[in-house]
UniProtKB/TrEMBL annotation:
PANTHER family, sorted: SOLUTE CARRIER FAMILY 35 (PTHR11132)
UniProt KW Signal keyword: no
Annotated protein name in UniProt: Sugar phosphate transporter domain-containing protein
Keywords of this entry: Chloroplast, Membrane, Plastid, Transit peptide, Transmembrane, Transmembrane helix, Transport
Transmembrane parts of this sequence: 77-99, 111-131, 143-170, 223-242, 254-273, 293-310, 331-347, 353-370
A GO CC term assigned to this protein in UniProt: chloroplast membrane
Annotated ranges, domain Sugar phosphate transporter: 81-368
Entry GO MF terms: carboxylic acid transmembrane transporter activity; organophosphate ester transmembrane transporter activity
Length: 384
């Protein structure tokens, strides 16, 4: 009997963890946490004498007591870590939108700025790969064929979003982009052939109504900004469709890095074609004359870095939470961006625009909640 307890209390090695139940947030827990509760107290009483009688082994100190690796902060306080991720995601997103709009106020060239966003992100990815954080995942021709459509849609959606940001108020662009769930639902039913429940369609009615109300009385409205935001919605919808077809075993960080590289290659030709001559004639000179060379270059580098980091943090954050939390987080992010942009830029909005925006955001929240509940039910049905 004593031998049995000695075996049960033997400390586990600090090497690779083969027991899935021994892993929480990527860190190994104390072995005795995993013991059944009836045995735990008995083992705690007997473990010291048993180990003391045995000869000292690797992983034990001179007194014969097992050395246990300390539990990290992330494993001890997972809720705090997840909350910090959410905070940084929102913070970086708000800063990106504000700085992006400030750049357009003195440098109205969205195609070139889109290239800078992706270019800075690609440099960041290459530097991360160079130091092995993360290690670069291999890519072959088959994976590349799957990722190209995703990257093309990502590039088109990103550029048209920036065209809209440059043309109208940030808050209005985000209000239009609240229609993205409507396009996703339509594509799922009419392109992928997935049956969308009536309750989900009904939840989208306030979104359409709210965006329509906001658009009719938006003071900064122009067709370039409106149409560009709508094209962005369609592009990101197709990106979602192609992403489902391009499921690979590659981790999200490497996947986003490869998509960014391809998207950058796609964005460079239209930037040269549509804005190249203007930039060479007076675009760069006018921007430098207004804010100076140092601020101009610093702004471009910072906005690109904020763009990449907020997207990367969004992916890392959403991987840590349940679908419902994911949905709520996305809705709140849009509320934060719209609110802060109105405050920072002092945009004047009509009462009808404010009501329409509120209705649209409420509709997105309702849609996200219903869809998250459906996803959770599907997950439970599969695991049952």
């Amino acid at each position: 009997m004593r031998a049995a307890f000695a075996s049960a209390a033997q400390p586990r090695p600090n090497g690779p963890v083969t027991d899935a139940g021994n892993l929480v947030w990527g860190r190994q827990l104390r072995p005795n946490i995993l013991l059944p509760s009836p045995l735990k107290l008995t083992v705690e009483k007997r473990v010291k004498p048993v180990l003391a009688a045995a000869s000292p082994a690797e992983g034990s100190d001179s007194a014969g007591e097992a050395k246990v690796a300390p539990v990290g902060f992330a494993a001890k306080y997972p809720a705090l870590v997840t909350g910090f991720f959410f905070f940084m995601w929102y913070f970086l997103n708000v800063i990106f939108n504000i700085l992006n709009k400030k750049i357009y106020n003195y440098f109205p060239y969205p195609y070139f700025v889109s290239v800078i966003h992706l270019g800075v992100g690609v440099v960041y990815c290459l530097a991360s790969w160079a130091v092995g954080l993360p290690k670069r995942a291999p890519i072959d021709a088959n994976i590349l064929k799957l990722l190209i459509p995703v990257a093309v849609c990502h590039a088109l959606g990103h550029v048209t979003s920036n065209v809209s940001f440059a043309a109208v108020a940030v808050s209005f662009t985000h209000t239009i982009k609240a229609l993205e769930p409507f396009f996703n639902a339509a594509a799922s039913q009419f392109i992928l052939g997935q049956q969308i429940p009536l309750t989900l369609w009904l939840s989208l009615a306030p979104v359409v109504l709210g965006v329509s109300m906001a658009s009719l009385t938006e003071l900064s409205f122009n067709w370039t900004g409106f149409i560009s935001a709508m094209i962005s919605n369609i592009s990101f919808t197709y990106r979602s469709i192609y992403s489902k077809k391009a499921m690979t075993d590659m981790d999200s960080t490497n996947l986003y890095a490869y998509i960014s590289i391809i998207a950058l290659i796609v964005c460079i030709p239209p930037a040269i074609l549509f804005e190249g001559p203007k930039l060479m004639q007076h675009g760069f000179k006018d921007a430098i004359a207004k804010v100076g060379m140092t601020r101009f270059i610093t702004d471009l580098i910072c906005v690109g870095l904020f763009y990449h980091l907020y997207n990367q943090l969004a992916t890392n954050t959403l991987e840590r939470v349940a679908p419902l939390t994911h949905a709520v987080g996305n809705v709140l992010k849009r509320v934060f961006v719209i609110g802060f942009s109105i405050i920072i830029f002092g945009n004047k909005i009509s009462t009808q625009t404010a009501i329409g925006t509120s209705i649209a955001i409420a509709g997105v929240a309702m849609y996200s909640y219903i869809k998250a509940q459906m996803e959770e039910e599907k997950r439970k049905a599969k695991t049952a």
